[in-house]
Design brief:
24 helices; 74% helix; mainly alpha
């Protein structure tokens, strides 16, 4: 019993360190890795008692099904079966993220994004806000909300001179990026997790969430359009030393090839039924081969700066390790039975799947949505065989999973610390927490509620 409850305490404390990373000055990746490893250690120390407590009356049936004759063999089951099984699921997400982030870094290093950003010339605040928001919404669906936020805020720094303007636009970028990421299988880490886990399909998530996600962006955008006025002043920029380093033709080629590599992943999965991370690694390998051949004609300096081996140094490995740690932590809680208890509590006290998801959406404004979705995936499973007694909401592309993708993806916009996109904006622009709370949070909440209402009207009612 002690170790069962100790796991909960360790997870809560570890999560607190992650949430208040800016206070304790300890990188969240370090905390996540430490927490994940400690939870598995606590589980294996008292594995027999924890598994007995978790399974209760079903213990004999569970043990005989796995060929476990003696309780002492539970430890071997944890170390040789449970850890390996969960590691396979986690690794598929990690390799997918690693491939996607590398492709995006290649496009950025070759200045491919400038092909898009250099075409924006308007200084009208309302018009510029709509252009930036719509671009963010759709680019986020193709890339991911974190990368899109970084790219669009870098663009805003070239387009807007006043800090207040940039903060306001950056807040809208966060809302649009999270909304755009929610309706795409590759737009957010949580949709990637659900897609790879088999809870949703690429076509299903687009069909069910495109309109609600669009409403989530349009509502705050419309409100801001009513109160904004005037024109913007562009900052005086120093000459970009690397502007002539990559010819326009090469920028365009890399942009097209990179986007094709990302967009082809759902097609690859649909044609082969292989895990999406293999499609992502296939695209990365093809892009890598092309750039290596392309660099044969360049000088030594270009080869050193533009080789993918060099570009890999810029990939945010800390973020990947954070996801690894937090997913391992949630896997430990799932194995020990904590998530089943949470699912039972929600079923008994909330019972409505839409209410459960809306609660998860509000929670994602306070804490990261990755462990919330990982916990939900652990709490509820996709039925493998159609059973009339099983609610269809939990089948592939069922209402529970698609609404979970929406709520967890867009609910994080309500507070600036609630999403990776918000944290990136906070870091790049120095946006204060309470400034965002005062100026953006209510708008994001209106969008979240409007989008949820749209989904309920479309499917639930």
């Amino acid at each position: 019993m002690f170790f069962f409850y100790a796991m909960i305490i360790v997870f809560i404390v570890g999560y607190g360190f992650i949430v208040f990373e800016h206070v304790n000055k300890i990188d969240k990746a370090a905390t996540a890795l430490f927490t994940g490893a400690i939870l598995w250690t606590l589980l294996v120390i008292d594995a027999p008692n924890i598994m007995h407590l978790h399974l209760n009356r079903n213990w004999e049936e569970f043990a005989s099904g796995l060929g476990i004759i003696e309780t002492a063999q539970v430890m071997e089951f944890i170390t040789q079966h449970a850890v390996i099984e969960h590691l396979g699921d986690v690794a598929s997400i990690i390799f997918f993220l690693l491939g996607a982030m590398t492709i995006v870094e290649v496009i950025d290093r070759y200045q491919g994004f400038r092909v898009i950003t250099d075409r924006i010339h308007t200084t009208n605040r309302i018009k510029l806000l709509w252009i930036i928001s719509i671009l963010t919404f759709f680019i986020s669906a193709v890339l991911d909300n974190l990368t899109t936020t970084i790219v669009m805020i870098a663009l805003l720094q070239k387009l807007l001179s006043k800090q207040d303007n940039r903060w306001l636009f950056s807040g809208m970028v966060v809302v649009a990026a999270n909304a755009g990421g929610a309706w795409s299988p590759m737009g957010d880490v949580t949709t990637i997790m659900l897609w790879i886990g088999g809870q949703i399909t690429a076509a299903g998530i687009v069909k069910s969430l495109l309109i609600p996600s669009l409403i989530t962006m349009l509502v705050p955008l419309a409100v801001l359009s009513l109160v904004m006025k005037g024109a913007t002043n562009r900052p005086l920029l120093e000459a970009d030393e690397s502007a002539e380093f990559i010819p326009y033709k090469d920028r365009l080629k890399i942009l097209i090839l990179g986007i094709l590599a990302l967009v082809a992943v759902p097609v690859f999965k649909g044609l082969t039924q292989l895990p999406p991370f293999l499609g992502m690694l296939l695209g990365l390998g093809a892009l890598w081969m092309y750039t290596d051949r392309h660099l044969k004609r360049r000088n030594v300096l270009d080869k050193r700066k533009l080789s993918i081996v060099k570009i890999l140094e810029r990939v945010d490995v800390a973020s990947i390790l954070f996801f690894l740690g937090i997913l391992l932590a949630v896997a430990a809680l799932q194995t020990a039975g904590h998530l089943n208890l949470m699912a039972q509590w929600l079923d008994e006290n909330v019972s409505n799947i839409y209410g459960i998801n809306i609660i998860i959406g509000f929670l994602s404004a306070v804490v990261d949505n990755v462990p919330l979705v990982a916990a939900s995936m652990g709490m509820y499973e996709v039925p493998q065989v159609a059973d009339v007694s099983m609610a269809s909401d939990f089948f592939v592309d069922g209402n529970f999973w698609s609404f979970l993708a929406y709520c967890s993806g867009t609910g994080g916009s309500i507070l600036i610390i609630g999403s990776a996109a918000g944290v990136a904006a906070m870091s790049m622009e120095g946006i204060p927490f309470f400034w965002y709370l005062k100026r953006i949070s209510l708008l994001a909440l209106l969008g979240y509620v409007a989008g949820a209402g749209t989904y309920l009207l479309m499917f639930a009612l």
